[in-house]
Amino acid sequence: MTQAKDLRSAPTLPVAPLPAVLGALHDPVRLEMVRRLSNAAAPVRCAALYDAINKSTATHHFKILREAGLIERLTIDGQTYQFLRAEDIERAVPGLLPAIVDAANRAHATD
Question: Where do the HTH arsR-type domain residues begin and end (predicted)?
Fold first, then answer.
């Protein structure tokens, strides 16, 4: 059995200032990615984080979330995963992530 090996694909950036964080979360696709990551509370394979967009568009959205300091890319057993930096976000902007994810979950439940 192969042992999982976690590797960061790039240096972790600091969580961006609030306007940049809100800008990254403003897009519905990125908000949905963050909602899914938050609900999973663990690294998630990239393809499980989006629907109805192609891989290159998803890559663009992941880049924006990474640059805002919201997610981190990991390689586990050769597969690419995304990880929500919830603790870092909470330290940088206390209460923001739970409020946004809660609102996104409520909106998703009514879809």
Answer: 10-108
Are 50 and 29 in contact by the 8 Å Cβ rule? The answer is yes
Query: Nearest-CA neighbor of 108 among 54, 39, 58?
Result: 39
Torsion 21-23-27-29 (CA) sign? negative
Phi, psi of 74 (to 5 degrees): -125, 150
Say which DSSP state 85 is in. Answer: -
Burial of 13 (0-12, 13-18, 19+ CB in 10 A): middle
